[in-house]
Write a structure and sequence with these properties.
Subcellular location: Membrane
Helix content: 10-25%
Catalytic activity: ATP + protein L-histidine = ADP + protein N-phospho-L-histidine
Pfam families: HATPase_c
Number of helices: 2
CATH superfamily of one domain: Histidine kinase-like ATPase, C-terminal domain
InterPro entries: HATPase_C_sf, HATPase_dom, His_kinase_dom, Sig_transdc_His_kin-like_C, TCS_sensor_his_kinase
CATH topology of one domain: Heat Shock Protein 90
Strand content: 15-25%
Order of helices and strands: EEHHEE
CATH architecture of one domain: 2-Layer Sandwich
Protein name: histidine kinase
CATH class of one domain: Alpha Beta
Largest sheet: 4 strands, antiparallel
Shape: globular
Strand order of the largest sheet: 1-2-4-3
Structural class: alpha+beta
Length: 128
Amino acid sequence: MVLRCSAPDRRHLPARPAWIELHVLDEGPGMTADQRRRAFDRFWRAPDAPKGGTGLGLSLVQRLAHASGGEATLARAPGGGLDAAIRLRPAPRPSQGRPSRIGLPRRVRSDRSTPESAPSPPSVRSPV
């Protein structure tokens, strides 16, 4: 399996790329056109697939890509195998140097106080 990620020279990039693509290429037997069309169906597995797995992996990838405003595709890889691609819009630029949260949940602050329902630790008295 080959993971390919490339970025052109930044001097030749537009101000903001419209899409970011991630390609994962393998050199296996590949899939027929019909298998590639069905590969995103939930619980579908290729007839010659090894044992194990549920057939949900590519379905989940596609749904996550769609939920992010992108897409997932499968194509024949040059020289054989499969080219699995995910295409997403780039994250918005942070404004004024502040980091972007990109939809991540906020951290829960730990205030070190014990909740009222939690039992108090036993007190230790020093002998006087």
